[in-house]
Amino acid sequence: MSERASNIARMAAQGLPIPATVRPGRWRAAFPYHWDADDLVSRREMLRFAVLASGSLFAGTALLAVLGWIDNRRRGSPKPIVRATDVPEGAAHYFNYPEPDDQAVLLHLPGDRFVAFSQKCTHLSCAVYFQPEQRRLYCPCHEGVFDMETGEAVAGPPQRRLPQIALRRDGDMLVALEEMP
Ligand code: FES
């Protein structure tokens, strides 16, 4: 603030009469800031605000991306599927998991082992089926082939393995726990 402006402000604060020749407009007494200083403060504050706003936006976007990534990688909650004794060795059981519209397949492998996979082909999302004679999971759309024990893509256009569904055995009941990428 200039010396002249501070003198006028002090006189106004003390209730002293201000000569007409130097009396400023009422707004100047109420806001005794020099234009240059006002401009500098505004720019600095604006820059700080812009940096804080963009930083917050970036952090929020990154957080949402991480949460979405975590959410996309594992889906589902424990759900009983079928009794193990109802699926003979070498046979498949088709079910829906983790959502009612999500098709999945459970296989009874030799050695009393069970595995389950999403039925959604990782190429263009056609449904894969178990072919016991060929001991494989097969996608009829473009002849994609997946390993029946690991879900790995072994032939055809698919490049990624089938999402696997973690299983738990409660007595004779097979329970799906979650779908993993
Ligand atoms: S959709 Fe399965 S191989 Fe193309």
Short description:
The protein has 181 residues and is of the alpha+beta class. Helices cover 31% and strands 29% of the residues.
Provide structural commentary.
The chain has 181 residues and is an alpha+beta fold. The protein has three helices and ten strands. 31% of the residues lie in helices and 29% in strands. The mean pLDDT is 86. The site of FE2/S2 (inorganic) cluster (FES) has 11 residues, from loops.
Rounded mean pLDDT is 86
Please state roughly what percent of the residues sit in beta strands, choosing from under 5%, 5-15%, 15-25%, 25-35%, 35-45% or over 45%: 25-35%
What small molecules does this complex bind? Answer: FE2/S2 (inorganic) cluster
Strand order of the largest sheet: 5-6-7-8
Question: What would the keywords be for this entry?
Answer:
alpha+beta; three-stranded antiparallel sheet
Note the topology.
Blueprint: H1 3-14, H2 26-30, H3 35-73, E1 79-83, E2 92-96, E3 103-109, E4 113-118, E5 129-131, E6 136-139, E7 144-147, E8 153-155, E9 164-170, E10 173-180
Antiparallel strand pairs: 1-10, 2-3, 3-4, 5-6, 6-7, 7-8, 9-10
FE2/S2 (inorganic) cluster (FES) binds next to loops.
